[in-house]
Amino acid sequence: MPGIIVMGAQWGDEGKGKATDQIAERVDYCVRYSGGNNAGHTVVVGDDTFVMHLLPAGILNPNSTAVLGNGVVIDLDVMHDELDALGKRGVEVPHPLISANAHIITPYHQTMDRVTERFLGKRRIGTTGRGIGPAYSDKVNRIGIRVQDLFDESILRQKVEASLERKNQALVKIYNRRAIDANQVIDGLLSHAERIRPHVVDTSRLLNKALDDDKVVLFEGAQAHHLDIDFGTYPYVTSSSPIAGGACTGTGVGPTRIDRVIGIAKAYTTRVGQGPFPTELLDESGEALRQAGGEFGATTGRPRRCGWFDAVVVEQAVNVNSATDVFLTKLDVLTGIEKIPVCVGYEIDGERTDVMPTTQSQFHHAKPVYEYLPGWTEDITGARRLDDLPTTCRRYVERLEELIGCRISGIGVGPGREQSVAVNSLID
Ligand code: GDP
Ligand code: IMO
Ligand code: MG
């Protein structure tokens, strides 16, 4: 012990990279359990900014071993490019340990992601185009390629050919594209086989043993609760389980091994891609938040949609994931706003609710009910203790705690590693 999960409590990009980095120094294993290189986790160390896509952000800490669990979908080109790019920047990190059961994103998954999005037109999801959905579809459809398949060429060949047979029919007949050559795909995958071979292990046994030995295991969530395939705003979601439960199914440790679940939430709300977003600001105040918060995607560079803090959204994440703590990021971005609106409930077809509605169509009709909290003008980027924050700022944090039903154990007051207010230890 302990097993700690860090996960997004909104729609992604809450600052999971920064929160992970806060405790990474004391972490023995840093583990990705879901998603793939659709993630973009930023860590700022002095003048250096690192954006990690597939590798866990904790890999930057020399004392922790990076692990990609079975729930992750791995683009091998991206993984090796990320490792090599770190090396070129003088950050030599060991190759991550990889689950033999993790699925692989192939070039045909990327192609299918892009053509299906184009085909959907106005009804598109707004995916990152990284092949995530098609790779998970193949997994569930039992025609996926797993890491272990790379070590048996004849099995790999059979699987790729079988999978491509159906996809090529669709590509040519429905999407008016050229068929994809199986040999090229197989050669591309095999080119990584020898480099990964020494690092492919039974990651479930490894992590259970680590927890038995009292090592600190950090499960680094990607995406977020409201992008979860089951609990998110379906169909505007990703295709995996970023929720806390995903850390168990995505790595092979049981629920009793988890001691802490730390939900990461921004002091306001952002979303990338399509889907409902009740507190979204479509006027100049949304643009002001985007500029103040630098809200442009770490993976695709897309401008993020911005809106006020939605306590209903975060409360559901706290509840479903049994969050023990919340780390509130980007509080500094709200400095200078005279009265800060916070969404405390919705009006849906004339009825008031304080919790997420049961059905998706109700959520699409939800109109936010706001409470207005007094703002502050003082620069808080140098604050390190609660006492350093202006009274109205502390009141904002306390009110959010009441509304979401969870203690706020850390507060981000800037992107830098040291720019945090520690309230409760995130690790002990
Ligand atoms: P993640 O995907 O959850 O790891 O979040 P991203 O890295 O995609 O986006 C978060 C952005 O906010 C990054 O640019 C971070 O450097 C930045 N950031 C994180 N915490 C804070 C904070 O407390 N204040 C400010 N101003 N920026 C922050
Ligand atoms: P991190 O880990 C924000 C969104 C996409 C799209 C939907 C489905 O950095 O918080 P996908 O490519 O996964 O099929 O896209 O999910 N999305 C994210 N939004 N942060 C992320 O990751 C995201 N990963 C996926 O924009 O709406
Ligand atoms: Mg991100």
UniProtKB/TrEMBL annotation:
Gene Ontology biological-process entries: 'de novo' AMP biosynthetic process; IMP metabolic process
One Gene Ontology cellular component annotation held by this UniProt entry: cytoplasm
Free-text comment on the cofactor: Binds 1 Mg(2+) ion per subunit.
Keyword Metal-binding included in the entry's annotation: yes
Chain sites annotated for binding Mg(2+): 13, 40
Pathway stated in the Swiss-Prot or TrEMBL entry: Purine metabolism; AMP biosynthesis via de novo pathway; AMP from IMP: step 1/2
Tree of life domain: Bacteria
SMART domains assigned: Adenylsucc_synt (SM00788)
Residues annotated as binding GTP: 12-18, 40-42, 304, 330-332, 412-414
Localization (cell): Cytoplasm
Pfam short name (any one): Adenylsucc_synt
Catalysed reaction equations from the record: IMP + L-aspartate + GTP = N(6)-(1,2-dicarboxyethyl)-AMP + GDP + phosphate + 2 H(+)
Chief localisation class: cytoplasm
Binding site for IMP: 13-16, 38-41, 128, 142, 223, 238, 302
Keywords from the UniProt entry: Cytoplasm, GTP-binding, Ligase, Magnesium, Metal-binding, Nucleotide-binding, Purine biosynthesis
GO MF entries: adenylosuccinate synthase activity; GTP binding; magnesium ion binding
Residues noted as binding substrate in the record, renumbered to the chain: 298-304
Described purpose of this protein according to its UniProt entry: Plays an important role in the de novo pathway of purine nucleotide biosynthesis. Catalyzes the first committed step in the biosynthesis of AMP from IMP.
Stated family: Belongs to the adenylosuccinate synthetase family.
Subunit field text: Homodimer.
Protein name: Adenylosuccinate synthetase
Source organism of this protein record: Cutibacterium granulosum DSM 20700
